Amino acid sequence: MSGPMMFNDPPVRTEAMLNLFRTVQRRLLLFTAAVAVLGVLVGLLVGGTAGLWGALLAAALGLVFTFTTVAILRWLAGRGPELLQLVMIGGWIVKMALVVVVMLWLSQQTFYHRGVFFGTLVVVVLGAVAIEIATVANARIPAVEPGMPDVSSVTPGATRDGGPPTPGTEPRDLAGRGAQQPAPDPEKDADERH
To answer: Would you tell me how many other CB atoms lie within 10 Å of the CB of residue 41?
Structure first.
């Protein structure tokens, strides 16, 4: 029976994973800033001050929604999968509730241009998804971290390449013997037969 589930274990953070999350966060910030600037310019041309507010609101809402997901993943890097699932689902519910509240409030406001808001929000969200997919697809995350013990050093009978154990080193063979038996001597066997 396994022990109680521990959510407060110290995180084992791999540098490769943290670098990946930092890269995604940096790209999200730069992309959202660029879309906000472009959205503000288009918004000013299309709707004046209302267009400016529409672009700024959409960029801020999109950034909060996408950036917080990566920030949570970065914070949870190396922790148990149970905690990751719990926090991600809880965070998603909180973010969706926040979006619903903001959208309900915005639906009653007239100070922003709705078309500019919608267009900017779509560009930010789709761009964030593309950035996350491209960054993860091109990431170099090692399957084994340097300094981790070799499988053969912690598993009796295992080989470095993961192949079948060497004959005579299976755990059942070693467990039944108090002391390791010496290897057979061919000369001694030949003398005993004569």
So the answer is: 13
What would the pLDDT profile of 116-162 be if each residue is shown by its tens digit?
999 999 999 899 888 888 887 877 766 555 555 554 454 555 555 55
Cα separation, 135 vs 74, in Å, equals: 14
Query: How does 42-52 read in b/e, with b if 16+ C-beta sit within 10 Å?
Result: bbbebbeebbb
Decide: residue 98, CB within 10 A, 0-12 exposed, 13-18 middle, 19+ buried.
middle
HSE value, Cβ hemisphere, 13 Å, CA-based, for 68: 18
Looking up tokens 């109680």 gives 4
pLDDT digits (tens, 9 = 90+) for 97-120: 888 898 899 888 889 899 999 999
- Encode pLDDT of 9-45 as tens digits: 444 457 777 787 888 888 888 999 999 999 999 999 9
Burial class (CB in 10 A: 0-12, 13-18, 19+), 87: middle
For residue 89, the tally of other CB atoms under 10 A from its CB is 10
127-151: string of b/e by CB count within 10 Å (b at 16+)? bbeebbeebeeeeeeeeeeeeeeee
Q: What Cα–Cα distance (Å) separates residue 40 from each residue in 47, 60, 64, 81, 192?
A: 10, 12, 18, 41, 96
Q: Which residues contact 28 (CB under 8 A, 6 or more apart)?
A: 63, 66, 67, 70, 128, 131
